[in-house]
UniProtKB/TrEMBL annotation:
Pfam families: PspA_IM30 (PF04012). InterPro entries: PspA_VIPP1. This is PspA/IM30 family protein. Keywords: Coiled coil. It comes from the Bacteria.
Amino acid sequence: MSDNTARMRTIFRTKTSRALDRMEDPRDMLDDSYDQQVRMLQQLRQGLAEVATAKKRIELQGQEMGARYLRLAEQAQQALDQGQEDLARMALQRRSVLERQVAALREQYAALEKQQANLQENERRITERIAAFRIEKETIKATYTASQAQVRVNEAVAGLGSQLNDAGATLDRAKDKVAQMQARAAATDDLLRSGALRDLTAAPDEDLDWQLASGASRADIERQLKAMKDSAAASGATPKGPDAWLSIGS
């Protein structure tokens, strides 16, 4: 049971991951990554500013302690000149304590100075990397946009080709139907002429007129055939010359 559950979870995660891949836009992914890097750079610069502020504070404190160190030396000398050795000794003791404090402060200042230098170097390198990433990001986005447009164009062309194929098939079917209708019209016309199919829209007895006209036409053809035979038997030739047309039908 546990194996089946694990397998189902794996399949679900795989399908979910594929669906998310289809939904993700690489341009948005690149912009998000760029924004994260910019935020990290801002945090680095903020830390650099804090280190610089702390270093400046120690520097001012060191200057104050240095001024006091010199003043204690002067006070010790004045006390000694006045014959007040105890007072001179006290000034020198304070000067000694201050000297140790200045030494510790100097170590802190050196550490902050080193930290500031490291942060400045990191800030420089990260700034360059982000600038390079931004250029590459915009290039990739432009390439993706162009490819996306090409895909849409290709899909449109493919769809148009399919529609043209369908249109060609439609034209073929239309031509077949037109040919069938023409054949049907010719067949019904022949049936109407032969009298096998009665034309309800025709005038009364029109079929008789048509048959009489057809019979007259056949009789005229028979007459012409007989005349040709008689003429051939009589003269053996058909009338010729520029006025031969006058005898046509007579």
